[in-house]
Amino acid sequence: MAARQATPTVCVLGGTGFVGRSLSSLLVRRGYAVRIPTRNRQRNRRLLVLPGVDLRQANVHDEAELEELLRGCDAAINLVGILNEKGHDGSGFRAAHVDLVEKLIGACQETGVTRLIHMSALKANHNRGPSHYLRTKGQAERLIETLCGDEIHYTIFQPSVIFGSEDSFINRFAGLLRLSPILPLARLDARFAPVHVDDVALAFATALADSDTCGNTYELCGPDIYSLREIIDFVRRELGIRRLVVPMPGVLGRLQATIADYLIPGKPFSLDNLRSMSVANVCSNGGLKQLGITPRPMHQIVRGYLKPEPDRLAILRRSNRRRD
Ligand SMILES: NC(=O)c1ccc[n+]([C@@H]2O[C@H](COP(=O)([O-])OP(=O)(O)OC[C@H]3O[C@@H](n4cnc5c(N)ncnc54)[C@H](OP(=O)(O)O)[C@@H]3O)[C@@H](O)[C@H]2O)c1
Questions:
Q1: % residues pLDDT > 90 (the chain)
Q2: Which residue of 27, 33, 288, 312 has the lowest C-beta tally within 10 Å?
Q3: Is the CB of 124 under 6 A from ligand 1?
């Protein structure tokens, strides 16, 4: 009898997040064992329904714990990322994006993991990035390119904004639109090429199975480019509501971001986010196409998960009739 091949094991840092859940589920369907560290196993226990997922409470910033996590793995995928830090000096971004990547490369070297797939961001740039977010994402890319050497075969992905039923982009705007009749917003001219979360997951899974992708960086974009205003208008139409969207010019936009950054708990928006939006979030080449993936258009899919606002008047009339 031929010996059975061991199931390949992939450690997915950030595997509990929006992208991570889609990717982990795809990897399981493709026959991988998936090891996912999390800071809160209880909160993410729904991942345990996926057969082959090993969800571990761990601190990935601790080098010894990181090595333990990677031991026996065939590949590491890094999806850890933050959109906002607790403070304002960039140290939170550096810890999550740069220091962690340096530790991850070290742990791969220590444990003999020779494949690393890393999630960056479109327009990441180590010195010209306009925000802490984009600069630290660029610095992580540089670390990977210089430290991996011949031992670790890496692939880097740079997506535009990612959408899907559990995203925090479209759903956030839908929430804001539902909340208020007037929505003042800065940078309505910012451009995006929203890419579907399952296309991003497919790109990662494709790279994992194809060694020709080693050493490459892929931009990931959806098929259409939208301004922020077009996205807001589209969401508003899908919700079936009328709203006044007011453009906030330069200084007022910065003031709005500063208030959200410093005064609102949980930082729904920040100056750093505003700075990231100063560069067009659109691809210069078609990374998905190079991988043989046809990107899904946003307008068709978002329709499936944005529920139109219930007609409150009709509900009121119906409940009055029931009382009659
Ligand atoms: N979503 C987008 O539109 C978009 C666009 C471009 C690039 N990206 C990048 O894609 C990656 C995944 O994005 P996402 O939307 O899936 O993010 P997400 O839903 O916020 O998930 C982030 C994951 O990272 C982990 N994490 C967050 N902060 C951490 C920290 N300080 N230390 C350790 N682990 C931490 C979380 O794990 P636990 O809480 O379980 O520990 C979580 O699983 C990120 O690197 C992001 O920058 C996202």
A1: 89
A2: 312
A3: no
Ligand 1 centroid – CA 17 distance (Å): 6
Q: How far is CA 28 from CA 32, 48, 116, 205, in A?
A: 5, 11, 18, 10
pTM of the model: 0.94
Shortest-distance atom of ligand 1 to CA 97: 45
Asked whether 163 lines ligand 1 (CB < 6 A), one says no
Q: Which of 34, 8, 45, 41 has the alpha carbon at shortest distance from 201?
A: 34
Does the beta carbon of 159 sit less than 6 angstroms from any atom of ligand 1?
yes
**Beta-strand relationship, 226-227 and 191-192:** antiparallel
- Residue 14's region, left for phi above 0, alpha for psi from -120 to 50, else beta, is left
- Short-list 74, 115, 80, CA closest to 99: 80
Distance 119 CA to ligand 1 centre (A): 9
Closest ligand 1 atom number to CA of residue 92: 31
Instruction: Tell me if 78 CB under 6 Å of ligand 1.
Output: no
Per-domain residue ranges for the chain?
Answer: 9-163+195-222+282-296
Residue 307 has pLDDT above 90, yes or no: no
Instruction: Give me the pLDDT at residue 324, please.
Output: 46
Ligand 1 nearest atom to the CA of residue 133, by list position? 47
The answer to whether the CB of 158 falls within 8 A of the CB of 134 is no
> Domain 9-163+195-222+282-296's class?
alpha beta
Ligand 1 neighbourhood includes 38 CB (under 6 angstroms) = yes
For residue 23, give every residue at least 6 positions away whose Cβ sits within 8 Å of its Cβ, in sequence order, or none: 12, 15, 77, 79, 200, 201, 204, 205
